[in-house]
Amino acid sequence: MLRGFMFIFVASLLLMFLDCCSGSFIGICYGRNADDLPTPDKAAQLVQLHQIKYVRIYDSNIQVLKAFANTGVELMIGVSNLDLLPFSQFQSNADTWLKNNILPYYPATNITYITVGAEVTESPNNVSSLVVPAMNNVLTALKKAGLHKKIKVSSTHSLGVLSRSFPPSAGAFSSSHAHFLKPLLEFLAENQSPFMIDIYPYYAYRDSSSKVSLDYALFESSSEVIDPNTGLLYTNMFDAQIDAVYFALTALNFKTIKVMVTETGWPSKGSPKETAATPDNAQTYNTNLIRHIINGTGTPAKPDEELDVYIFSLFNENRKPGLESERNWGVFYPDQTSVYNLDFTGKSGGDDMTMEGNNVTRSNGTTTTWCIASTKASQIDLQNAIDWACGSSGNVDCTAIQPSQPCFEPDNLVSHASYAFNSYYQQNGASDIACSFGGTGVIVDKDPTYDNCIYMRTGNNITVASNTTVISSTSSPSPTPSSSKKEVSSSISSFLTIAFLLFLWNFEQAY
């Protein structure tokens, strides 16, 4: 009796620890409503180069699923609003879709979420009543395949699903959607799926600039907005909107459902009246957002609560209708160059630089610098970066690191990546962003040239200082370096699992 009790107690303790260490993550939306996008294979390479581990796509395109196979990237895939009718009418339609579009590629392609319908309350056609039946049929298909515990089913919504969002504590769902929301929330609660919401502080500022300050929308506000009902203090609109959703869920007694942000971001270009749609504001919003999420601070109403967020979007999409801003949400241009500098790891700011063993000061000097690979980078990240730099995207001549060539030895990824990184860096103006490589590139002031392996060099405006750091940033404050909570979670999980197994072994010996 005691033995069984101890086993259950320790197992429960382990699961509690594993759950508390899960952490929040940042992903990106990969829309393809454009004429000039790179192939899915190249898009997958770009995602890996920038160490993005989570991607949302809006369908189940086979070429995209194949491109992300064996990359380790977790995919959220979608069932479109056009497919809601057939999916809701017949179980066989959902079964066939899963058999043809998912099972042949899973688990090599790591699919973790399926969204059934997208912002249906905004759809001109009244399809909201079809969502839950379609979700149930998709879930049944997953159960038949034994995947219902590995792939979660939900649906995405615009903030328009709320009738009120300010103050956050007054957040409430629109009564006009009650017939649709009640069964949907019951489905989510029963299956432990998140409530997925698309949050856009940009629109709140654009449409109500007299009431909403730009700093408040960009996570830059030095003042606080007080919720008069709760006394909670808000320094940014993103948190206020998230908490409004949580309060709306609580009002309907769905307190256990977690919120996930499936779209947020800021456009880099807009029509003449959209003056806030600039690259600087887009960089500021997304940089501060990433820092906020990775640091795991939660929201005022849900401090330390896990919040997973997908940034919209990977590329600018030229076929999207509407104002100019609609076509300019991308972090990258279709040619895979950056619209602005963004570090998805949350470890550095927009315009800061890192040098191994040195502090740097911007000046008018002409000291030459080079870009090399960080010795702390993983092998897979270095290989992905080399493939990108030496491929058609980076357009670097990597002949020198081929066998029998002057830079082939030493034959390791750090050495080969360093040569490729530096060539790209020098060819692209020796700018900070040209040495990013998803956080695997490092700027140094010591010439890496050795033997007959000559590293390209140019002059730039960096001076090395011995004990001081003076770095100007024109976009946004640099976030405090922090490790990804997912990475920490993995280490802790492994440790606890081993400790648990050792405990059981010793327990067996004792009894």
Automatic annotation (TrEMBL):
One of its GO terms (molecular function) is glucan endo-1,3-beta-D-glucosidase activity. Its main location: membrane. GO terms for biological process: carbohydrate metabolic process; defense response. It holds the Pfam family X8. It is found in: Cell membrane. SMART domains: X8 (SM00768). It is a lipid-anchor; GPI-anchor. Its EC number is 3.2.1.39. Keywords: Disulfide bond, Glycoprotein, Glycosidase, GPI-anchor, Hydrolase, Lipoprotein, Membrane, Plant defense, Signal. It catalyses: Hydrolysis of (1->3)-beta-D-glucosidic linkages in (1->3)-beta-D-glucans. InterPro entries: GH, Glyco_hydro_17, Glyco_hydro_17_plant, X8. It comes from the Eukaryota. Residues 369-455 form the X8 domain. Residues 1-23 form the signal peptide. Gene3D superfamilies: 1.20.58.1040, Glycosidases (3.20.20.80). One of its GO terms (cellular component) is side of membrane. The keyword Ion transport does not apply. Belongs to the glycosyl hydrolase 17 family. This is glucan endo-1,3-beta-D-glucosidase. It comes from Crotalaria pallida.
